[in-house]
């Protein structure tokens, strides 16, 4: 682990566990959970650049996700408009390449927020405020770290990435259309199977599907195994550990997020599943919802199945095009 990954890991630990600790002490479970999720987004979006650029990138990104969730909430009951919005957001999410780190992630979060809110995931003004508060907490920690401890991290510029995308450095229209169509088909199938939270299926597709076929196949298996292990760990934690102990669990696993992003998608799937599932179940305390864990794994299987179908079809299209050329 590089020194800057240890420093970033500490930021993730503090940013995600402090809200849980606050919620345990104040018995303010819902706000604490969404503060944790807001901190996660801010830490992932952080361009590791100058302070003003960090502030602008994080605040604008988090506000955009909240607005996207609000749009999803307003589209409840308007299925045709919801599908149209999903197609647009999904297409746009599919355009940035992985090297466009900020817009690649933000596009996926915008589509996720729209989808989850439209399909019934909790969304309200108070939750939006809690989400934004968690992001601000993470931003303060980020700025404090930049002041106290200089690292050799490579900064990236959301502005430069944006202009590269505008100039045509994208994944192209085929992938842009395939991504939302796959999400739509998977969400419909999850609804037909009466999955409790079908929106998680779309989330799996957004983060597993990749323009590179070989990488996507590799991500499929890592996502399944990592999610299974993460669900088991989160289940044990929520069932047997007290509320303050859950803050420690989140801190321990969140520490490994920066390292796993570079080193292992399997490890990333594991640690992100543990932290997110513990946070969501924390919002449901004092009873929690342990059945949600098993549904989360089923959602992953459905999502990965549809990613496999999409990969087979797009690979066939590419092979046919190559023969014609």
Automatic annotation (TrEMBL):
Q: Which keywords annotate this record?
A: Membrane, Transmembrane, Transmembrane helix
Identify one Pfam family in the record.
Answer: FUSC_2
| Superkingdom, taxonomy of origin | Bacteria
Q: Which GO terms describe its cellular component?
A: membrane
Can you say where in the cell this protein is located?
Answer: Membrane
Q: How does it sit in the membrane?
A: Multi-pass membrane protein
Quote the protein name from its UniProt record.
Integral membrane bound transporter domain-containing protein
Give the organism's phylogenetic lineage. Bacteria, Pseudomonadati, Pseudomonadota, Gammaproteobacteria, Vibrionales
């Amino acid at each position: 682990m590089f020194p800057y990954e240890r420093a970033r890991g500490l930021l993730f630990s503090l940013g995600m566990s402090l809200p849980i600790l606050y919620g345990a002490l104040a018995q303010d479970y819902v706000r604490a959970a969404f503060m944790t999720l807001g901190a996660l987004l801010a830490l992932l979006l952080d361009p590791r650049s100058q302070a003003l650029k960090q502030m602008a990138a994080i605040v604008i990104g988090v506000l955009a996700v909240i607005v996207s969730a609000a749009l999803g909430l307003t589209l409840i009951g308007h299925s045709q408009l919801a599908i149209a919005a999903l197609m647009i957001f999904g297409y746009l999410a599919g355009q940035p390449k992985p090297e466009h780190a900020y817009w690649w992630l933000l596009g996926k979060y915008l589509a996720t927020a729209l989808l989850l809110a439209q399909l019934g995931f909790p969304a309200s003004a108070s939750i939006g405020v809690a989400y934004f508060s968690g992001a601000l907490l993470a931003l303060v920690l980020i700025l404090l770290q930049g002041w106290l401890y200089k690292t050799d991290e490579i900064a990236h510029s959301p502005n430069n990435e944006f202009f590269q995308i505008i100039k045509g450095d994208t994944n192209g229209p085929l992938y842009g259309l395939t991504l939302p169509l796959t999400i739509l088909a998977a969400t419909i199938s999850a609804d037909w199977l009466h999955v409790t939270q079908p929106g998680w299926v779309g989330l799996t597709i957004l983060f597993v599907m990749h323009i590179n076929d070989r990488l996507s196949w590799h991500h499929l298996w890592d996502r399944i195994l990592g999610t299974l292990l993460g669900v088991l760990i989160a289940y044990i934690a929520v069932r047997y550990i007290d509320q303050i102990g859950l803050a420690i669990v989140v801190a321990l696993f969140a520490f490994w997020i920066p390292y796993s992003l570079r080193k292992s998608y399997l490890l990333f799937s594991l640690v992100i599943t543990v932290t997110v599932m513990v946070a969501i179940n924390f919002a449901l305390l004092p009873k929690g919802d342990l059945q949600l864990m098993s549904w989360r794994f089923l959602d992953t299987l459905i999502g990965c199945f549809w990613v496999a179908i999409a990969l087979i079809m797009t690979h066939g299209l590419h092979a046919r095009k190559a023969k014609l050329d």
